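During the second half of the funding period, the structural biology subgroup turned its attention to how the target accommodates small molecules. The most pressing case was nicotinamide-adenine-dinucleotide, which had performed well in the primary screen but for which no bound structure existed. We therefore specified the complex as follows and requested a full 3D prediction, including the ligand pose.
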Amino acid sequence: GRNASLRASVAPRIVPKVASGSQISPQASYKVAVLGAAGGIGQPLGLLIKMSPLVLDFTGPSELANCLKGVDVVVIPAGVPRKPGMTRDDLFNINASIVKSLVEAVADNCPDAFIHIISNPVNSTVPIAAEVLKQKGVYNPKKLFGVTTLDVVRANTFVAQKKNLKLIDVDVPVVGGHAGITILPLLSKTRPSVTFTGEETEELTKRVQNAGTEVVEAKAGAGSATLSMAYAAARFVESSLRALAGDPDVYECTFIQSEVTDLPFFASRVKLGKNGVESVVSADLEGVTEYEAKALEVLKAELKGSIEKGIAFANKQQ
Ligand code: NAD
Ligand code: LMR
């Protein structure tokens, strides 16, 4: 159905330990709702997070409230994807209203949940979600996340290929936003420590920034990345559940309300805990290369415009 959503109870796969070595007893299970579960991302994402026999599905606006009651994590991949020639911002007119109405339902039914926004343009849909939550008086900036995990998955993959490293070992922080030049892989902060020539830096940075568009063009009108996004979203859900269960060592890059730059939202690597964002790894932005510093300055203007567009939309519609 058009507005299908799905709710799954998911047991986190880890049994987290505290420093003393004694085991934390995590809640027996957590509830995760996927709004837009019938879509290209939603279907494989539903499969990936269905770690428990209890999966309920709901269809249409009349069942949305029931879908959301008691949910710990809400994932929103509802909305239209790009076709060749479009920017993510070209999706604004349709997806802004979809995200607005779904987040209103989240605010009414599970205001304490972690909210993962996948619907594009993420640089604007996250600020829209924040405004909606503020209007409803339930905004918790530590629990609202723009999902940028796919940028990290891509950066790790391309760096591992280029440098002949094991993918599992590679971790590249990606900061900024989630569209074109606003996506900035901090290659100088790659772990394990790797050196890149100027040419490699330029090539890898552009490849990460353009990877979504590469997929859109290859699909030639049939949409954008779905399976890789479902994988990335499942990773971010799993990380959130581990954080909720008390794992003290969960880090992900995500687009959040932020004070690390003069912009109100910015993607950074953060430490996740029971209450959402526990801290931002601000060291990632310290001691960056000249190339990265320049790219950071350049991306801010575009990102600022997209954030302001989202905020204006949410307030105009009130
Ligand atoms: P899709 O068209 O295959 O699926 C979207 C689904 O959303 C459809 O099933 C549709 O019925 C549903 N939907 C629309 N309005 C709804 C509503 N009000 N309530 C519930 N469901 C609703 O698209 P897709 O390929 O799954 O992509 C979805 C979105 O994710 C797009 O906006 C795309 O740009 C974005 N995306 C983001 C990233 C990222 O990294 N953040 C990556 C890939 C795609
Ligand atoms: C992606 O990065 O693959 C998504 O944002 C979808 C898109 O439109 O590129």
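Two results from this model are relevant to the next phase. Residues 14-24 have pLDDT under 50 and may be disordered. The first helix runs from residue 42 to 49.
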